[in-house]
Amino acid sequence: MAKVANERLRARKLLLDALKMPETLPALSLADWELLLRVARRARVLGRLESALHHAGLLGDIPPPVAAHLRAARNVIKHRKTLISWEVNRLLWALKGIDAPLILLKGTAYLLADLPPAQGRIFADVDLLVPEDRVREIEERLVERGWFKTEIDPYDDRYYRVWMHEIPPLRHRERGTEIDIHHRLLPKTSHLASAPAPLFAAARTLADPRLRVLAPADMILHALVHLFLEGDPDEGLRLRDLADVHDLLCHHGQEPAFWASLVPRARALGFQRPLFYGLHHAHQFFGTPIPPDVLHELEDAAPAWPIRKLMNRLIPLALLPGHPDHPSHLAALARWLIYVRAHWLRMPPGLLIKHLSHKAWLRFRGFRKRVDLAQLDLKQQ
Amino acid sequence: MILMAAGRGLIWQDWGDVYLVYQPSSAETHVFNETTAQILKCLEHGSLSTATAKERTEAALGVDLGELAADDFAFATMRLEELGLVESADDVSTAQ
Amino acid sequence: MNVGDLNRREFGEQLAGDGVALQFGPFNLRLRSDLDSFAAHAHQLYEPYPLPETTAICDFHVQICAPRGLRRWLRRQACFGVDGQFPFAPYTVEHAFPALEWGINWCVATRAHHLLLLHSAAVERNGRAILFPASPGNGKSTLCTALVHSGWRLLSDEFGLVRPEDGLLLPIPRLIPLKNESIDVIRRFRPEAIIGPSFLATRKGTVAHVRPPLDSIRRAQEPARPRWLIFPRWVSGAPLTLEPMSRSQAFLMVATNAFNYDVLDETAFRLVTDMVHACDCYSLVYSDLNEAIPALDELCNSMDR
């Protein structure tokens, strides 16, 4: 029992130390590297470690078998970055003549705006925020130019369009990349629903004037909302999303007036609770330097003391990947509870959702059913 | 209409029967026949009107002027545009 | 030290405990299982495979185990897992061994992106290799098995592992899975071939595993330079044809048949270009191994001069 507890602690320490102090990695033993690779892969931060080592010029000091894994991660990440940039390029081509504000979100924004979280991050889809009254026009133009809509049941499709904050994903008929078009950051049904107009007003234009990203505070708030309200029952909360927030806080924190504006902006958008959790746990795991008066200002956004204590236990359990050989029932429970909470925050029980079962909702989020290993086309992986 | 080359850093391989071209900005590998390849090559030195591009392609292919079907040419340029290898503009005054 | 240096009991105990580390070419695997029947098959079929140094890291941590919870007692099942995750539908416990083998393929195909992964069989002789890029159903495993029992060394029956730094093929001489009629074909072709038990009614029909000759396993750390690209197709009753193939066609077939051509961007384009330039490319149609093997021997001998 003690051995298992020790192993779990070891896995946790290896991961957090690696993320906070990558310069210590060359000194790691092979046995430690073996565990770290597994845990980092689970948390999808392998690329982040590779990037940190690359920038510090330390890759040559890493044992060759370990370096092979890091190189593999780097190759995948580099390829995906190209796919995402290209998809944005093609998107702009397809939308020529449609003069709608396009705000890039999440990874797409980090990449196109050349922000620190883009390094070592694995990219999946292109995420865009557009005004609700332009969604149809944009979608139709994309369909004309070679994209197709994801096939879903007409009732689900309508549910998606009426209640959710995004339309079903679009995919180009030749390329695989998915485009997720959002018209707000959260479903209309959420407790935390906030109107998108202030986001558009504050958005910043990139070097290419057709593209925008959220203002610094908004970008961080969105990342936190996405982190805490879009969990997954298996994976829990995404540690790499918190790492992104840490990067953004450090980067934008250098701008004068950023810190002073953060809490007021959170209140204006109704996101003060996710900010509360985000700042505390970013500091806890990554040592993010946060001005004390900002934390003080945020105290009244804290939940009631019993809930605060509970979340202090649950969030780390749901955030950290645990030891691959010694899964923790407690962590699995925490992940599930956090997921249910996120689900509830997005869709309060009062809403009648007749046919949209739990599974269908998971399908929207790309939750993978158990596939048959024997029939799997390994080339599609 | 004006056509401009848009592919950056393309890597060409001439295999005799077809060209295989790697496009770094999209990470895609394309297979081009002689006609498509010549369209791209004639745009390498600057933008051209559609009509001029067609004439130069025909010259490069060693065929008579007007022999290349207009539909085929239009299809090829449309496809190249979709792949991001060519850009088109309507305004004549924007050409060099 | 090899798997066979552990007796059956030790092997089973380790497998059920911390796991047994196995070396397959460039990859070290840590394998765990609590299934007795699986342990028996593994001990028999993996017997000559080396155990890596205790200090070496393991690249994949896989397991094939009874499911947790109630299902353990209801139907006897085996679940394939990697790093504590079980993303696949369970198998019946009788199919644990083939499931594990497929699982290892999945690990390689989804993780080894520091290499170019071609979907190809590969064999070597006199320092030169033939690659057989092929889709499933073209008979490459059967052909490959016949060749390695006719004087060729097995590099792989599934993965052409190309090292980007120098374009060399890295061996991964694992068991070769044969399906349905191919099992009897090989038994007739080479009665002395070591073939494991037949697993009936799997998702791919009847499957049995051929253990490659010891020489192939012992030389698993010797890379080879590709010299021929041969695209095989088994067609019942067809006369033997071995015809040159255009290089552009060969390029496209290799690239579209690779597991991760896309992922490696420009590196993949250059590696496949170099390989196709350096190799003679042929398409092969055959129905009889006793015709195909000598034809390939002849081709490669004449090229060598």
TrEMBL record, chain A:
> InterPro entries under this entry?
NTP_transf_5
Organism's domain of life? Answer: Bacteria
Name used for this protein in its record: Nucleotidyltransferase family protein
**Which source organism does the UniProt entry give?**
Candidatus Accumulibacter phosphatis
From TrEMBL, chain B:
The lineage's top-level taxon is Bacteria
Against NCBIfam families, the record matches this protein to: PqqD_rel_X
State the name under which the record lists this protein. Answer: HPr-rel-A system PqqD family peptide chaperone
Species name: Candidatus Accumulibacter phosphatis
Its taxonomic placement starts with: Bacteria, Pseudomonadati, Pseudomonadota, Betaproteobacteria, Candidatus Accumulibacter
From TrEMBL, chain C:
Origin superkingdom:
Bacteria
- Give the molecular function GO annotations: kinase activity
Q: Which UniProt keywords apply?
A: Kinase, Transferase
Task: Tell me which InterPro entries the record gives.
Answer: HprK-rel_A, P-loop_NTPase
For this entry, the protein name equals HprK-related kinase A
